[in-house]
Amino acid sequence: MPMTRKSAAVTVGAVALASLGIYAAAQDDDNDYAGVCVDQATQTRISDDRCDDHHSAGFHGGHGWYFVPRGVAAPAIGSRISGGSFAAPPSSRSWGTGFRSEGGVVTRGGFSGHGFSVGG
Q1: Domain ranges of the chain
Q2: What's the rounded mean pLDDT across residues 77-94?
Q3: What span is annotated as the signal peptide, if there is one (predicted)?
Q4: Cβ–Cβ under 8 Å, residues 54 and 60
């Protein structure tokens, strides 16, 4: 049975929407650094929601973002930090929050939060 114009238009529209969804998901996961929230006094990772009110380097209320580059292991919540820096990434790089709470190597797809560009 031949395809009608209406069903062809619906099919094309569905494919376009699916493609946009895949593209948006890839963009969210394409960060160069994972920003993990750190307690200044203990130098341990804490829940990222403690840092969600600010999107910049530095300490705010005793906690701040710690930037772990892609390819380096980020600490689990409650673990001491290493392998990253409190200095913001270079302006040509992006960072994202929401890295998995159990830690692990920072790779594409390890984020569930938001991405941010630095500088500009």
Answers
A1: 33-117
A2: 93
A3: 1-24
A4: yes
